[in-house]
Design a protein that fits this description.
The protein is of the alpha/beta class and 321 residues long. The protein has 8 helices and 16 strands. Helix 6 packs parallel to helix 7. The two termini are 22 Å apart.
C-alpha cells in the first residue's frame, strides 16, 4: 500500500486570490493524471470572485463531507472553516437546505459553503433569503436560478454533475509536515446499526438509530475533538476542535439551544469521564453513540441509565485533524 519511494508530479493550475491570510500569496497545483470526477479542477465555475486558499480548503472539506452523507436522499451541508454547521436530509433539496440552515447553527453559516447532491431549481431566491453564504457547490443549477444568483456577483458557484453521486477521493490521504509527508488511508469505515454494542438498559428507538448514524457521519467530518447533536436527521449543534471533550459537549448544547432536547449525540472518541454525558443528559439528549473503551465507561453507563439515555458503542474512533 505504501511504496518505498514516492514522487509527486504537479502542475500549476492557478494563482489564488491570496493564501490563508490576505498578506500571504498562494497558488493551486493539481495532479494532471487524476481521474477523480470530483477533483476540484473538474468543477465548472459559473460566477464569483477568484478563489482563495481557504476557499479551496473549505470546498475540499465540503466534498469529503457530502461523500460521507452519500446520494440515497436529497442532502445539504453547510460548512464554515472546514466544519459542518448545518446538515440535513429532506424530501427535496429545498427542504434539505431549509432544514440545514434553520435547524443548524445559522449564525456560523454566515459566509460559509453550501453543498447539495441534487440540482438547484426554483429555490435561488429562498436560498439567498436565508443569509449570506460565499460558495455554492451543486451538480446542476437551473438557468433562472443562475440569473437570480448573478445579482450577488461575488457569490462563487461551482458545478459538477458528479455531486449527484458523491464518492471518496481515490488513493491515499496525504499531509505535508516539516521534513516530509504523512500518508494514510481515507476514513471510509461505515458504521451500521448492526454493529452497535448496546451498553445501557434502554435500547435506541428506530428514530434514534437514524439520528445516531447521521450524527456519527457528521462527527467523522468535523475536527477533533468533536461532539455533534442531531435531531430528525438534521444537525442541531456541535462542539468541534476543542481540546476538552466536556467543553465539546457544552459548546454543542449551547449551539443547539432548545433543539438539544430530544436529540441524539455522537462523540468521535470515548468519553474519559461522565461529565460530558451528564452535560448532554441535562440538556435533554436521549441517545448517545461513542466508541467506548474508557476506564470509566461503567460510570458513564450508570449515568445514562439514571437519565434513561440509550447509549451504544461503535467500537471505532473517528478523529479528524
Amino acid at each position: 500500500m505504501f511504496p518505498g519511494d514516492l514522487k509527486f508530479e504537479l502542475k500549476k493550475f492557478s494563482e489564488l486570490r491570496y493564501g490563508e491570510n490576505p498578506h500571504q500569496k498562494g497558488a493551486f497545483y493539481i495532479d494532471p493524471k487524476s481521474r477523480d470526477r470530483l477533483a476540484i479542477q473538474n468543477f465548472k465555475k459559473f460566477q464569483g470572485k477568484e478563489l482563495s486558499f481557504n476557499n479551496l480548503l473549505d470546498i475540499d472539506a465540503a466534498i469529503f463531507a457530502l461523500s460521507q452523507i452519500g446520494a440515497k436522499q436529497p442532502a445539504c451541508l453547510i460548512l464554515k472553516h472546514g466544519n459542518p454547521c448545518g446538515a440535513a436530509y429532506g424530501k427535496d433539496i429545498k427542504t434539505a437546505f431549509l432544514r440545514a440552515w434553520n435547524l443548524g447553527d445559522f449564525q456560523a453559516a454566515f459566509g460559509g459553503v453550501v453543498i447539495v447532491n441534487r440540482p438547484v431549481k426554483k429555490i435561488a431566491s429562498i436560498m439567498l433569503g436565508r443569509g449570506f453564504f460565499e460558495i455554492l457547490l451543486a451538480p446542476e443549477v437551473a438557468k433562472n436560478d443562475l440569473k437570480i444568483f448573478s445579482e450577488k456577483k461575488n457569490l462563487i458557484i461551482l458545478i459538477n454533475g458528479a455531486l449527484k453521486n458523491p464518492h471518496f477521493a481515490p488513493g491515499l490521504d496525504c499531509k505535508k509536515i516539516r521534513g516530509g509527508w504523512l500518508l494514510q488511508e481515507f476514513n471510509k469505515r461505515e458504521i451500521t446499526a448492526g454493529a452497535f454494542k448496546i451498553a445501557t438498559k434502554r435500547k435506541p428507538t428506530k428514530r434514534e438509530i437514524r439520528d445516531l448514524l447521521f450524527a456519527w457521519k457528521i462527527c467523522k467530518v468535523s475536527k477533533s475533538n468533536a461532539v455533534c447533536l442531531v435531531k430528525n436527521e438534521a444537525l442541531a449543534g456541535s462542539g468541534v476542535g476543542q481540546q476538552s471533550r466536556v467543553k465539546c459537549c457544552k459548546l454543542a448544547v449551547f449551539s443547539a439551544g432548545v433543539r438539544a432536547n430530544g436529540a441524539a449525540a455522537a462523540s468521535d472518541a470515548f468519553f474519559p469521564f461522565s461529565d460530558g454525558p451528564e452535560t448532554l443528559a441535562k440538556a435533554g439528549i436521549t441517545a448517545i453513540i461513542q466508541p467506548g473503551g474508557s476506564l470509566y465507561d461503567q460510570k458513564t453507563i450508570n449515568l445514562c441509565n439514571k437519565y434513561k439515555i440509550a447509549m451504544v458503542f461503535s467500537g471505532v474512533r473517528c478523529f479528524k485533524h
